[in-house]
Amino acid sequence: MTVGILRRCCIKLGKVRYYSRESSSNSTVHTISITDPTFRLPDRSTILSGIQPTGTFHLGNYFGAIKSWHDLNNLVKKSEGNSSLYFFVADLHSLTVPQDYQMLQKQRLEAYASIIACGIDPQLSTIYYQSCIPEITSIQWVLSCFSSMGYLNRMTQWKSKANLKDNANVSDENALGKVKLGLFGYPVLMASDVLTFRATHVPVGQDQSQHLELTREVAQSFNKSVGSKYFNDPHTLLTPTKKILSLKNPLKKMSKSDKEPLSKIFITDSANEITKKFNKATTDSIEGKLTFDLENRPGVSNLISILAAVKNKSIEQIVIDVEDFSKKELKEAVAEAVINELEEPAKKYKELISNPEYLQKLSDLGTEKARIVANRTLKDVMRLVGMSSY
Ligand code: AMP
């Protein structure tokens, strides 16, 4: 991320408080402060975010992404809705790495069901599969003509997904052979996801932040070339939960691909499974008060982070609450809080996944609503690049 001079300030927009970090360039990154009870969105916001269909969500997906979608969904509901919400299953993004396509088909459905199970209201929000909106890939082509290879080369995700070092370069023979065009150009598809719906606010985890920088860059480059301020600069809304770590190896992040079943909690886990996994979570042998110290006490700190995320409290506040607990008591407290938090999503998910016809109806509705907007943008974009007969 190219956030240069960090100007940390707190802006109150109506009842909204954003913790804003602004660079000397025109990029704007906000951290959603859901711990602030007065948090509210500006009027006429368009919020958009997507998630890849890697199957049922785990606690990292839940706190690192979906919970903030849910909170934004509720904010828009409360504000009596002159803002729009778009949430999607980023299935085309999945094709950037090898897939078992039968499995992918199943996981798309699971991801769609998980979004709704986690409290996103399909009547209020437009929820769709990215692959059902062909306008996105048409707009992507146009945007790719405004995307610098040098900028894409600096992105880190294609390197990590192709198992290359952070300093890898697309002009290296090794990288050229390993990296497919789709993986390298992934951020342009993401730019199209955002710009197709003219999103004003994009909630993402830290890992996607640099792709939004690129989105703003592409939008400005397009605007400059066509002599219009057609695309606005979408704001990055960073979720407050940075990283949920593996319960077994807290030096790694919690990940679906981790082979150790005790390392992760799924939103569909039973109360017994959740209790068992937290009981077996790795902590440390340091005596005395519990402290938050990611470097020396990653296991304990991870449990504190999870509790802070569930309770919508700051880490500092949770440390005050639990510092005199034993580690066993901390694990019990976290397990109880997570069981409560996931009770409703788990129940709802089971109902939804056993009713694929209903899910199909909802996704048809999402596609219909999304395509109306996407088609309008596509026509505008084509007109601006000299294809008004389109
Ligand atoms: P994935 O597609 O599995 O990388 O996850 C989708 C999104 O979930 C990411 O962009 C993050 O915002 C969030 N996420 C995934 N794993 C974690 C984690 N361990 N901690 C926090 N957020 C996570």
From TrEMBL:
**Where, per UniProt, does this protein localize?**
Mitochondrion
Classification via CDD domains: TrpRS_core (cd00806)
Please name the taxonomic classification of the source. Answer: Eukaryota, Fungi, Dikarya, Ascomycota, Saccharomycotina
One Gene Ontology biological process: mitochondrial tryptophanyl-tRNA aminoacylation
Report what the protein is called. tryptophan--tRNA ligase
Q: What is its EC number?
A: 6.1.1.2
Pfam families named in the record: tRNA-synt_1b
Cellular component terms, GO, for this chain's entry? mitochondrial matrix
Name the chemical reaction catalysed here. tRNA(Trp) + L-tryptophan + ATP = L-tryptophyl-tRNA(Trp) + AMP + diphosphate + H(+)
- UniProt xrefs under InterPro entries: aa-tRNA-synth_I_CS, aa-tRNA-synth_Ic, Rossmann-like_a/b/a_fold, Trp-tRNA-ligase, Trp-tRNA-ligase_bac-type, Trp-tRNA_synthetase
What SUPFAM superfamilies does this protein's entry cite? Nucleotidylyl transferase
Give the species this sequence originates from. Answer: Pichia californica
EC top class named in words = ligase
